[in-house]
Amino acid sequence: xxxxxxxxxxxxxxxxxxxxxxxxxxxxxxxxxxxxxxxxxxxxxxxxxxxxxxxxxxxxxxxxxxxxxxxxx
Length: 73
Fold this sequence. Notes:
This protein is mostly helical. 81% of the residues lie in helices and 0% in strands. The protein is built from five helices and no strands.
């Protein structure tokens, strides 16, 4: 595994966790260092870290706050 991939794994706790949960990807990562980018995308989809997921979360939070404000009125 090259240094760039090691650095990414060390500094991204979600990526490290995802790789530990799916240990079969270690072999792919060692054989193909470019696999790290696919791995990051898979991790983002699993842990809902993509832009649409974040927007959906914000929308839900605003909706919840709005309902709380309605109850308090």
